[in-house]
Amino acid sequence: MKWVRDVDENAPEGVQKILTGNKADEEQKRQVGREQGQHLAEEYGMDFYEASACTSLNIKESFTRLTELVLQAHRKELEGLRTRANDELALAELEEDEGKPEGRENSSKTCWC
């Protein structure tokens, strides 16, 4: 619970979190039981993974899920950046076109400065 508080107090707003229980391969060395970890994760609205660094159990899965959460959280922001970039490109093209004279009489020119 202290770690969750520390993250909430010190991490940027909206940071994505999962709860990972370690030592899934060594039941006797665990400090938090599976059910307690699952309950905490539910209480804080997080996904829960039991992992083992020794056997690689759920290591890839937990990092993959965290990556998915981060991408989902920032998808709107990325779409906004993409839209702004497209708008700026379109505006630049319009400004470029405004500087060009109209009509065929000037079509032999290679520079519109």
TrEMBL record:
It is an enzyme of class 3 (hydrolase). Keywords: GTP-binding, Hydrolase, Lipoprotein, Nucleotide-binding, Prenylation. It is a lipid-anchor. One of its GO terms (cellular component) is membrane. It comes from the Eukaryota. GO terms for molecular function: G protein activity; GTP binding. Its EC number is 3.6.5.2. The keyword ATP-binding does not apply. Residues 1-37, 93-113 are annotated as: Disordered. It catalyses: GTP + H2O = GDP + phosphate + H(+). It is found in: Membrane. Residues 23-37 have a biased composition (Basic and acidic residues). Pfam families: Ras (PF00071). Belongs to the small GTPase superfamily. Rab family. This is small monomeric GTPase. The lineage of its organism: Eukaryota, Metazoa, Chordata, Craniata, Vertebrata.
